[in-house]
Amino acid sequence: MSVRDVIFSIASSNGLNLENYIAVSGGDISRAYLLHTSDGNFFLKLNSDHVSEDMFNVEAKGLQILAAAKAIKIPDVIGHGRIGDYAYLLLEAIKIKNETPSDLETLGEQLAQLHLSTAEQFGLDHSNFIGSLHQSNDFHEDWTTFYIAERLWPQYQLALSKGLLTNTDIPYVEQMTVCCDNLFEDIKPSLLHGDLWSGNYLIDQQGLPVLIDPAVYYGHHEVDIAMSRLFGGFSSDFYSAYEYHFPVTEGYEDRMDLYQLYYLLVHLNLFGGSYYGSVMRLTKRLFSL
């Protein structure tokens, strides 16, 4: 089937009368289209990769988990599945506007409300993806154990298997444990977006923030803040509003580095050696290599 036939078939199978569609920007991983139908506009992601159906399935679950918290606007999931060679995810289309300081303040306040959604353990009842990489979310009672076993160690080992790191570049588990134990005190599981950079939120025409493309799990609330700061950061209005609910505590800057290390390892594994220097700078500083 041609892409055109696939798109018309997806619309029909979801009860929509498609009038026309246009290609739009939708990230590095999938093709994206805006569908114009007699029932309104919808956003469609298509991908022919062998893991894409699983990827869209857990993305839909993640969006629904975030929506259930009723803290921040999330696009409605219309449908997902596979037609022909393409997996798809069909979502409500969000009409956006340019953000204002007030909009970013609202984002900070609503993200804090999201992080007030808690669980008994760190993790999630299913694995998902960070970008196109598998992200394990096995449950753990202890945040140090979770962060090493489910976040840092798998990415270090993946980079080793790809020849992007050597054995001497990777800290021992004992070194990571000492670092984490020194920085983690009385940490509770919060519902996280999991990949909160500037490309993963929108501001709709009413000025409401909208979260997209999540990598959801229950973890330390500062993880989302660390990711938001990794590539330039959000506005001061965002951080001021957020920190009203979650004030900065001792060890914050070191934890920012520790949480950003995970995302830098992900970027190393996705995009290659240009991230090696950043990964090693933090690895050496945090774990005294």
Give a topology summary.
Elements (H helix, E strand, L loop, with lengths): L2 H11 L4 E7 L6 E7 L2 E8 L4 H17 L8 E7 L2 E7 L8 H15 L12 E3 L2 E3 L7 H19 L11 H11 L6 E3 L8 E3 L5 E3 L5 E3 L2 H9 L5 H10 L6 H20 L4 H12 L2
Antiparallel strand pairs: 1-2, 2-3, 3-5, 4-5, 6-7, 8-11, 9-10
Helix pairs in contact: 3-7, 4-5, 4-8, 6-8, 8-9
Describe the structure.
- It is a single chain.
- The chain is α+β, with helices and mostly antiparallel strands.
- The protein folds into two domains: 3-92, Phosphorylase Kinase, domain 1, CATH 3.30.200; 101-287, Aminoglycoside 3'-phosphotransferase, Chain: A, domain 2 (Alpha-Beta Complex).
- It is 43% helix and 19% strand.
- The chain contains nine helices and eleven strands.
- The protein has helices at 3-13, 52-68, 101-115, 143-161, 173-183, 222-230, 236-245, 252-271, 276-287, and strands spanning 18-24, 31-37, 40-47, 77-83, 86-92, 128-130, 133-135, 190-192, 201-203, 209-211, 217-219.
- The chain has a five-stranded antiparallel β-sheet, with helices on both faces.
- A hairpin with a 5-residue loop joins strand 9 (201-203) and strand 10 (209-211).
- Helix 4 packs parallel to helix 8 (252-271), helix 6 (222-230) crosses helix 8 (252-271) and helix 8 (252-271) runs antiparallel to helix 9 (276-287).
- The radius of gyration is 20 Å and the shape is globular.
- The N and C termini lie far apart (53 Å).
